[in-house]
From TrEMBL:
Protein's name in the database: FAD-binding FR-type domain-containing protein
Organism of derivation: Lipomyces tetrasporus
A Pfam cross-reference name: FAD_binding_8
Residues of the Ferric oxidoreductase domain: 88-198
Domain FAD-binding span(s) in chain numbering: 247-305
Length: 517
């Protein structure tokens, strides 16, 4: 039980300050050691023992992080209430440089994706919020005990209250609802609070934390410098495919000679479009083409309500950045016995991720199947633009009904209600918004569907049945062991979750690419 010493001597206060400072430094050192270990693993990937080549599961990393910070908060507190109260605030502040480092984009760690570090950043932020909130509550309890609640309104302490309110606001706008419906609010709240924290903590913390403030400032200035100098201004070429699909074309010469399949770029408004350009949120878009494509780089974009990409817009692009899941299928290609049966399941604009992955994997693997849940018949023309064949396209009646009639092509629904496994006799008219040069001046895509072995199924995709059918349809000459089967999914949380659940039940290797802000 922690006791409260209402009349500590000057020597006791000095010793308490020294102990608090010691464990603050210990927290800073431990957090940097963890970052160094992450860097060593990333740089040494391929030369480490196989169990060490994969990062810890997120729940294990978060649990270990919470345990270490709790341990540093409770060690050597001498069962004293103020020791614990001050320690919680100091440990939370000392962990913030690591928090800022984990949010840097791109990651300063070679061969490491910022997307892989982002979940750890999110959970570390939640732990810091818990520690700092408890720090504030305990201080209020102490002032209530000594009958001096007016100390809350002293300038240094009031700054601590502002930090707590900022943490709470940041936590609220980080909820999925705000991230999806108002990404600008989510981004700007984070960015402004990250900068505001530096001077506030510098004046609030006692004893002073100038070393911590220095690291926070360095990381923020580094991120600002990266946004200012490493972005490339580009004028977009945007073509509308359907109400939910646009094709964005970027000049190939703006990109490096090689980038991994499934990589993405981030696009933000230019200086002219946003006076406060450094506060403008950048949005990620997967590159739907391969590095070997010499003419251009294509993106498949779902039009947004708050961030529209229009033809001839001037924007800033950052990247490309590798996919967080790239290691999974890259390793599958390099192993002595690669997965010989791979099924790729995607929905909507997730085809932008599936296209380069499938094209790349088909060069080295025996059997690759692509399943795509599209929104309308009109979207099928994307398969021609992306050069894809051997695709099963699922268009559910519910999805088709949601599309405005003015954008629906002239194609008849099956009169008997049965599934259509091919549409060689159906006509699909191309969108008038497309550039006919990309489509070889064709006005109907019957031949394309027939020769590319594209099957259109007018029903909702049953993932369980499709995975089992794919497993059972493997040629007799192929290894029937489920361990050689891999399920790659890309799309919404619901689709990816269902694919992973059934893939694991079938004993397949599961790779997930979640399309979610």
């Amino acid at each position: 039980m922690f006791s409260i010493d209402l009349t500590p001597s000057n020597e006791a206060k000095k010793f308490r300050r020294a102990v608090t400072h010691k464990y603050g430094n210990a927290t800073l050192v431990v957090s940097f050691i963890v970052l160094v270990l992450i860097a060593v693993r990333a740089v040494s990937l391929g030369r480490l023992p196989k169990p060490l080549q994969h990062p810890f599961p997120l729940f294990l990393s978060v649990s270990l992080c919470a345990f270490v910070l709790a341990l540093l908060s409770f060690l050597e507190t001498h069962d004293d209430y103020l020791y614990l109260t001050k320690r919680l605030g100091r440990v939370a502040a000392s962990a913030m440089p690591a928090l800022y480092f984990l949010s840097l984009r791109p990651s300063p760690i070679p061969r490491e994706s910022y997307l892989r570090l982002l979940p750890l950043h999110i959970w570390l932020a939640r732990i810091i919020i818990c520690l700092s909130t408890l720090h504030g509550i305990l201080y209020i309890g102490y002032w209530a005990q000594v009958g001096n609640l007016a100390k809350i309104f002293e300038w240094a302490n009031l700054l601590g209250v502002l930090v707590a309110l900022g943490f709470f606001l940041t936590l609220v706008v980080s909820l999925r609802y705000f991230r999806r419906h108002n990404h600008e609010l989510f981004f700007k709240t984070h960015y402004l609070f990250a900068w505001a924290c530096v001077p506030i903590l510098a004046y609030h913390a006692r004893p002073q934390i100038w070393v911590i403030v220095f690291y926070l400032a360095v990381f923020l200035v580094g991120q600002l410098t990266q946004r200012h100098f490493f972005g490339q201004v580009v004028r977009l070429s945007v073509r509308r495919i359907s109400p939910r699909m646009n094709v964005v074309t970027l000049p190939r010469n703006l990109f490096p000679k090689y980038f991994s399949p499934g990589a993405h770029v981030r696009i933000a408004p230019t200086y002219l479009m946003s006076r406060f350009w450094f506060l403008a949120a950048s949005h990620p878009y997967t590159i739907a083409s391969l590095a070997s494509d010499e003419e251009s780089v294509r993106l498949i974009v779902k039009p947004g309500k708050r961030f529209q990409l229009s033809d001839d817009d001037e924007c800033i692009i950052y990247g490309p950045y590798p996919s967080v899941t790239y290691d999974g299928f890259a390793d599958s290609q390099q192993t002595a016995q690669p997965s010989r049966r791979i099924v790729v399941i995607t929905g909507g604009v997730g085809i932008s991720f599936a296209a380069p992955i499938v094209t790349s994997l088909r060069r080295t693997h025996s059997k690759i199947k692509l399943l795509w849940a599209a929104r309308s018949n009109e979207d099928i023309i994307l398969l021609k633009i992306l050069g894809l064949g051997d695709v099963d396209v699922f268009i559910s009646p519910e999805a088709a009904a949601e599309i405005e009639d003015t954008f629906l092509p002239e194609i008849g629904e099956p009169s008997d209600g049965k599934t259509l496994r091919a549409v060689e006799d159906e006509s699909i008219e191309l969108s008038s918004n497309l550039n006919t040069d990309d489509l070889d001046h064709v006005s109907r895509s019957d031949d394309f569907i027939k020769h590319r072995n594209i099957k259109v199924i007018y029903e909702r995709m049953n993932i369980e049945e499709e995975l089992k059918a794919f497993r059972d349809s493997v040629d007799a000459g192929l290894d029937s062991d489920n361990s050689s089967m891999c399920v790659i999914s890309c799309g919404s949380r619901k689709l990816v979750g269902e694919c992973s659940r059934w893939g694991k039940k079938l004993g397949a290797k599961v790779i997930e690419e979640l399309y979610e802000i």
